[in-house]
Amino acid sequence: MSISKKVLLIVAHTPSENTRALVEHMLQAAQELNQDSSSAIEIRHKEALQAQANDVLQADAIILMTPENLAYMSGGMKDFFDRIYYPCLEDKQGLPVSALIRAGNDGTGTKLALESITRGLKWRWVQEPIICKGDWQPSFLLQATELSQAMTLALQEGII
Q1: What is the rounded average pLDDT of the residues 103-131?
Q2: pTM score, two decimals?
Q3: Number of other residues whose CB lies within 10 A of the CB of residue 111
Q4: Strand 72-73 relative to strand 61-69: parallel, antiparallel, unpaired?
Q5: Secondary element (H or E) of residue 78
Q6: In this model, does residue 1 exceed pLDDT 50?
Q7: Given CA atoms 87, 24, 135, 140 in this order, what sign does their dihedral have?
Q8: Residue 33 to residue 107: CA distance in whole angstroms
């Protein structure tokens, strides 16, 4: 009998070069950390508009990445939640979740919206959402890297 690997799912809406760079850094960091581990996990990335309930149902932890649009999450991320909410409601309670928000202004409305929806799903925040706000800064890439590494390591070690 084979034991299936744990799955870290990154669901992201990446309409810009900067948001794509954030996700690329997340994926690269998770894969680098993962290749050096004896307890490797599977890392999956889905664009918010393509992610399905089955992707979430197979996940053991999830990272959400969304830009702030009009003081709210992106339409792509909202569409993701609209499609997966009821199919995942019962089976994924307690799913470890974290998020990165790329906010031009404040990010607070987006953070509150993500927390509200995930609270309804009964997912478990394992870290406060990270808000990368203001003009683009290279340090945002480091924040994305660190978030991804923390989630990967926590899942590998059975902490989450």
Answers
A1: 97
A2: 0.95
A3: 19
A4: antiparallel
A5: helix 75-89
A6: no
A7: positive
A8: 29
3-state secondary structure of 67: strand
| pLDDT mean over 6-13 | 98
The b-or-e profile of 8-21 (16+ CB within 10 A means b, else e) is bbbbbbbbeeebeb
| Cα 36 to Cα 53: distance, rounded to the nearest angstrom | 30
Other CB atoms closer than 10 Å to residue 67's CB: what's the count?
24
Beta bridge pairs of residue 61? 8
Q: Can you point out the beta strands (E) in 13-142?
A: 42-47, 61-69, 72-73, 96-103, 124-125, 130-133
pLDDT given at position 156: 93
3-state SS assignment for residue 64: strand
User: Tokens 């790329």 map to which residue?
Assistant: 102
Going by the DSSP 8-state scheme, the letter that residue 123 receives in this structure is -
| Residue linked to tokens 């660190």 | 146
Residue 154 has pLDDT above 50, yes or no: yes
Tokens of residue 74, six digits? 């992106």
Angle between helices 108-121 and 75-89 (to 10 degrees): 20
Strands 124-125 and 96-103: parallel
Rounded Cα distance, 40 and 85, in Å: 29
pLDDT tens column, 78-116: 999 999 999 999 999 999 999 999 999 899 999 999 999
Question: 76 — alpha (psi -120 to 50), left (phi > 0) or beta?
Answer: alpha
